[in-house]
Amino acid sequence: MTKPKLVSLEQVALEVDDVDAVLEFYGKVIDFELRGSHRDNSGVLQMAFVDMGTNSSH
C-alpha cells in the first residue's frame, strides 16, 4: 500500500484507550515524528505529541 502524502495537519486530539497501539497503527498509515509524550506513574502512555507535514509546531 502506498502512503498518501500528508501536506499538513494542525492540532487534532484523539481520545483512545491505548495510545501506544494508536501510534503504532497510524505510524503504518502516515509518516509522523513523535515530538513528546507523557506517561502516568505506572508507566502507561497517556498522551503523545506528533509532527506531520510542514506547519506543525508541537
Automatic annotation (TrEMBL):
SUPFAM superfamilies: Glyoxalase/Bleomycin resistance protein/Dihydroxybiphenyl dioxygenase. CDD domains: VOC (cd06587). It comes from Rhizobium leguminosarum bv. trifolii WSM2297. This is Uncharacterized protein. InterPro entries: Glyas_Bleomycin-R_OHBP_Dase. The lineage of its organism: Bacteria, Pseudomonadati, Pseudomonadota, Alphaproteobacteria, Hyphomicrobiales. It comes from the Bacteria.
